[in-house]
Write a structure and sequence with these properties.
Blueprint (H helix, E strand, L loop, with lengths): L1 H6 L3 H5 L4 H14 L5 E2 L11 H12 L12 H15 L8 E4 L2 H12 L5 E6 L5 H7 L3 E6 L10 H7 L4 E7 L11 H8 L4 E5 L21 E6 L12 E4 L2 H14 L5 H13 L1 H24 L13 E5 L7 H12 L1 E2 L1 E2 L10 E5 L4 H19 L2
Parallel strand pairs: 1-10, 3-4, 3-5, 5-6, 6-7
Antiparallel strand pairs: 2-8, 7-8, 9-12, 11-12
Helix pairs in contact: 4-11, 5-11, 6-10, 12-14
The structure holds pyridoxal-5'-phosphate (PLP).
């Protein structure tokens, strides 16, 4: 009977792989319900509340009745603010007509791939890379072509590896800098080289602004043949408000608009008012959060190194440290769950990010320094016990 029921589930849905970090989180919450204290170093979600200008803007929006559908492309004021931000931060001039405001970056990835790909078109992406990209690509019917990025290169793409992955079916090269899971930035030189290839570039810039050394460059500084993805979840700690956007080449705006109208209608009107406030008035809050993240980053790198984890190129962006833990156990899934069960610390197994992430663990420093200290103390004890076995 049960077998018959599962037969009804589509192949697409069956083939979607779970987002393992969420499974760690769900197991952690079962342990928490049993009264066990868990330190969360697995989730990639800011521990900060939204900036006060953002919460004020949401209240005002509701009071003023800004609770209706907006234009499918987004609130014109927000689209103008996004242009102002790209001009101020990168000196690139974009038009509000190129912007589609979305309910977070996630639907934006899906819409771009739907707008771009026919069955069997190919998308080049890095391995390791953000866990959800492969599922978005397969749902769109395209094929993924994974290019390894190596620890010794600071997890940067090697241009020659991209070059040899290009075929006449390549539709786009997907990049993400600062990168999840590694926290590394793609260098200006590599960005230029990637931009010189002929397919479209899809550049996920969601961690822009969370950079502690050096500076992030938008792909639009080097090519117009690009889709930029960005959002408010990370920089403005607005994960639950669900707001993001695409900056698209002109010819793709109408197709993306039609997808948005049908699939999502528009992004949340209240979140869009909050987004305007964030872009206009939250610089000081962002600076404050960035300084705190940086302090945690330095602490985490130092402690992980002291525990014997090799960190070849220090991560300088996002809020992640990605370390090889294969000397403890080569199966990162088993290791992460063992750490959770025995040390009561949540970490993300590297396998969540691709085959080349196997053996690694991702630590997130989007948690208070106090919790990070406690979490790493517990981990140190766990490692000592493991070694004494
Ligand atoms: C690289 C990357 N892109 C996109 C997302 C999704 O963000 P959003 O909350 O805007 O959907 C995440 C979330 O962790 C991410 O790490």
């Amino acid at each position: 009977m049960f077998q018959n029921k599962t037969k009804m589930i589509s192949t697409k849905a069956k083939n979607i792989t779970p987002f393992i970090v969420m499974e760690v989180l769900e197991r952690a919450s079962i342990l928490e319900k049993q009264g066990i204290n868990i330190i969360h170093l697995e989730v990639g979600e800011p521990d900060f509340d939204v900036p006060s200008c953002v919460s004020r803007a949401t209240e005002v929006a509701i009071k003023q009745g800004k609770t209706h559908y907006t234009h499918s492309l987004g609130d014109p004021e927000l689209r103008q603010e996004i242009c102002n931000t790209y001009l101020k931060n990168y000196n690139v001039c974009i038009s509000p007509d190129q912007i589609i405001v979305t309910s977070g970056t996630s639907p934006a990835i899906l819409m771009i791939l739907y707008a771009l790909c026919n069955p069997d078109d190919e998308i080049i992406l890095s391995d390791p890379g953000y866990a959800c990209y492969p599922n978005f690509i397969s749902l769109s019917g395209a094929k993924m072509v994974k290019v390894p990025v190596l620890e010794e290169d600071g997890f940067q793409y090697r241009s020659e590896n991209i070059c040899s992955a290009l075929t006449n079916r390549t539709k786009a090269i997907l990049i993400n800098s600062p990168m999840n899971p590694t926290g590394n930035l793609i260098s200006e030189e590599t960005l230029k080289s990637i931009a010189s290839f002929s397919p479209y570039i899809i550049s996920d810039e969601i961690y822009h602004g969370l950079v502690y050394e050096g500076r992030a460059h938008t792909i639009l500084e080097y090519t117009q043949k690009a889709f930029v993805l960005n959002g408010f979840s990370k920089l403005y700690a607005m994960t639950g408000l669900r707001l993001g956007y695409v900056i698209a080449p002109e010819e793709f705006v109408r197709p993306l608009q039609k997808l948005q109208q049908n699939l999502f209608i528009c992004a949340s009107s209240v979140a869009q008012r909050a987004g305007i406030a964030a872009l206009r008035d939250a610089d000081a809050d962002v600076e404050h959060m960035r300084n705190i993240y940086n302090e945690r980053r330095k602490y985490m790198i130092r402690r992980l190194r002291e525990m014997g984890f090799r960190i070849t190129v220090e991560p300088t962006g996002a809020f992640y440290v990605f370390v090889d833990a294969s000397h403890l156990l080569s199966d990162s899934y088993k290791l992460a769950f063992d750490i959770l069960e025995k040390a009561h610390v949540g970490v993300t197994p590297g396998i969540d990010f691709g085959e080349n992430g196997e053996g690694y663990l991702r630590f997130s420093y989007a948690n208070s320094l106090e919790n990070i200290i406690e979490g790493l103390n517990r981990l140190e004890k766990y490692i000592q016990e493991l070694k004494s076995l």
